Amino acid sequence: MEDVAADTRIRAAVITAIESDRYDLCGGTVYARGHIRSIAKVVGVNPEELIGEFDSVHQVERVVAAVAATPTDHDLVARAERRQPNWTVAMAAALVVICGFAIVGLVSHKSNSPAADGAGSQTPQGQAGHPTQQPSSPPPSAVAQLPAAGEATMLVRSVSGRTWLSVTTKNGRTLFSGILEVGQHKAFSDRKGLAYVIGNAPVVDVVVNGNDIGAPPSSNVVARGSVIPGKGTVQQA
Q1: 3-state secondary structure the chain
Q2: In a domain, 226, yes or no
Q3: Which domain holds residue 9?
Q4: pLDDT at position 226, please?
Q5: For 93-102, what is each residue's pLDDT tens digit?
Q6: Beta strands 163-169; 174-180: pairing state
Q7: Is residue 49 part of a domain?
Q8: Last residue of some domain: 69, 92, 122?
Q9: Taking burial as the number of CB atoms within 10 A of a residue's CB, which of 35, 43, 80, 82 is the most buried?
């Protein structure tokens, strides 16, 4: 017994149990068949006969062990999933790359856009691609050039110097009294008529009811007079 145990490297207690047809110490039918094969070779017995006899007695346990060793559907699915590439991660990575290229292209387009060179230096474009012409302001005489029917209109422009100016209505209501600087102009109207005093008449230009009469007639440099509806000139006082 000791020699067999030494040659097979199987514990003597296990060999004794096998001789008594007890295989509980073998750890299962697979190990039991291996032990039987090893012992048979040492003692000079055909191992296949002994294993065949063992299998006939322990058929049920062998079948159960074989079925247990067969991979289940769950195992096959798990293995297949492990072999499958992770398409979700791959698609997420590709989306990040695409977004990166889009951001770079947008920034590059903005940096090369004519608007990036300064919006103040661009000429406004119309629908046909031509520069949009800004409406020009009407000349200072425009107010007086289109007098309302039945009204007296007067526009005073300071063209070459400052002057004192006073304009009242025929009823005595003061419309303006003050200094008119060079380049400034004032327009007045009233249904009954206007009365004026210009302290430095040679430096002004007057438009009466749409008629530009230039500097009004004056005594020395002071001009006094009135404007009545329908008349294209002033009435000197």
Answers
A1: CHHHHHHHCCCHHHHHHHHCCCCHHHCCHHHHHHHHHHHHHHHCCCHHHHHHHHHHHCHHHHHHHHHHHCCCHHHHHHHHHHHCCCHHHHHHHHHHHHHHHHHHHHHHHHHHCHHHHCHHHCCCECCCCCECCCCCCCCCCHHHHCCCCCCEEEEEEECCCCEEEEEEECCCCEEEEEEECCCCEEEEEECCCEEEEECCHHHEEEEECCEEEECCCCECCEEEEEECCCCCCCEEC
A2: yes
A3: 2-69
A4: 95
A5: 777 767 676 6
A6: antiparallel
A7: yes
A8: 69
A9: 35
Strand partners, 226: 195, 235
**CATH number (domain holding residue 224):** 2.60.40
106 - beta bridge partners?
none
Domain boundary among 38, 69, 100: 69
Domain membership of residue 119 (yes or no) is: no
Q: Verify that 231 and 148 share a domain, yes or no.
A: yes
Based on the fold, state whether residues 148 and 65 are members of the same structural domain. Answer: no
Q: Could you read off the pLDDT of 3-28 as tens digits, one per residue?
A: 777 887 888 888 888 888 887 888 78
Please state, in angstroms and rounded to a whole number, the distance separating the CA atoms of residues 17 and 5: 13
- State the burial class of residue 181 (Cβ atoms within 10 Å of its Cβ: 0-12, 13-18, 19+): exposed
Instruction: Identify whether 162 is part of a domain.
Output: yes
- Spatial distance between the Cα atoms of 75 and 31, rounded to a whole number of angstroms: 25
Amino acid letter at 233?
T
Alpha-carbon torsion, ordered 187, 193, 198, 201, to 10 deg: 80
Give the per-residue pLDDT at 35. Answer: 82
> How many residues are listed for the chain in this entry?
237
The tally of domains found in the chain comes to 2
**Number of alpha carbons in the 13 Å side-chain half-sphere of residue 84:** 10
